[in-house]
């Protein structure tokens, strides 16, 4: 676990897939053909926590949905790339548009995906994470498999780990408790 925390401490940007990561992967249509998705409130708190400590966030998804834009705006996600089947190309294009002063390369990113289209991007970044119900090939190529599934707090687990790696987890938690902030995060 210590190795994972140290690696997460190198992350400058978390890149997320949507279906199966931010949502449970189900695509639900109502009687009028309107698509709906469910998102985790806990994931939203985790995403917002990263922004508090200067860690960027992005979405790269193969589908296009106005709900993704709405959720990204609610949680303060910095970059949204939709409708892209080749997620590695989309990741490289996104990185090329960043302000050079940010000095963010693929090695500085964490990528969280759950299916075959995510693998190449996951193999390129410094930290790859997935969910327990991901495709076996994705699990085999991941540094971390969360205990929770997509849309049920899995992203929050990764956000918390990144905060621990950056030494900010206890400070973040202290905003929600009456506990005193320890001098340094407990990295155990």
TrEMBL record:
Q: What class of enzyme is it?
A: hydrolase
Q: Does the keyword Heme apply?
A: no
What's the short name of a Pfam family annotated to this entry?
Answer: Hydrolase_3
Tell me how this protein assembles: Homotetramer.
Quote the catalytic activity from the record.
3-deoxy-alpha-D-manno-2-octulosonate-8-phosphate + H2O = 3-deoxy-alpha-D-manno-oct-2-ulosonate + phosphate
Please give the Gene Ontology molecular function terms for this protein.
hydrolase activity
Q: Which cofactor does it need?
A: Mg(2+)
> What is the protein's known function?
Catalyzes the hydrolysis of 3-deoxy-D-manno-octulosonate 8-phosphate (KDO 8-P) to 3-deoxy-D-manno-octulosonate (KDO) and inorganic phosphate.
- UniProt cross-references to CDD domains, sorted A to Z: HAD_KDO-like
| Keywords noted in UniProt | Hydrolase, Lipopolysaccharide biosynthesis, Magnesium, Metal-binding
Top-level division of the source organism's lineage:
Bacteria
What InterPro entries does this protein map onto?
CMP-NeuNAc_synthase, HAD-like_sf, HAD_sf, KdsC_fam
Tell me which stretches of the chain form a coiled coil: none
Q: What is its EC number?
A: 3.1.3.45
Annotated protein name in UniProt? 3-deoxy-D-manno-octulosonate 8-phosphate phosphatase KdsC
Endpoints of the signal sequence: none
Give the family this protein belongs to, as stated in its UniProt record.
Answer: Belongs to the KdsC family.
Keyword Chaperone found? no
């Amino acid at each position: 676990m210590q190795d994972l925390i140290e690696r997460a401490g190198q992350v400058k940007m978390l890149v997320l897939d949507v279906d199966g990561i931010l949502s449970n992967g189900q695509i639900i249509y109502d009687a009028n053909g309107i698509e709906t998705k469910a998102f985790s409130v806990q994931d939203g708190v985790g995403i917002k926590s990263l922004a508090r400590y200067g860690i960027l966030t992005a979405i790269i998804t193969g589908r296009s949905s106005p709900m993704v834009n709405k959720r990204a705006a609610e949680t303060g996600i910095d970059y949204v790339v939709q409708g892209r089947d080749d997620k590695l190309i989309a990741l490289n294009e996104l990185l090329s548009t960043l302000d050079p002063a940010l000095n963010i390369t693929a090695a500085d990113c964490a990528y969280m995906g759950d299916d075959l289209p995510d693998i190449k991007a996951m193999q390129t970044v410094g930290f790859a994470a997935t969910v327990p119900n991901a495709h076996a090939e994705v699990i085999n190529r991941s540094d971390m498999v969360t205990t929770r599934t997509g849309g049920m707090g899995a992203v929050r687990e990764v956000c918390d780990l990144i905060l621990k790696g950056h030494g900010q987890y206890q400070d973040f938690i202290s905003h929600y408790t009456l506990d005193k902030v320890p001098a340094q995060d407990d990295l155990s």
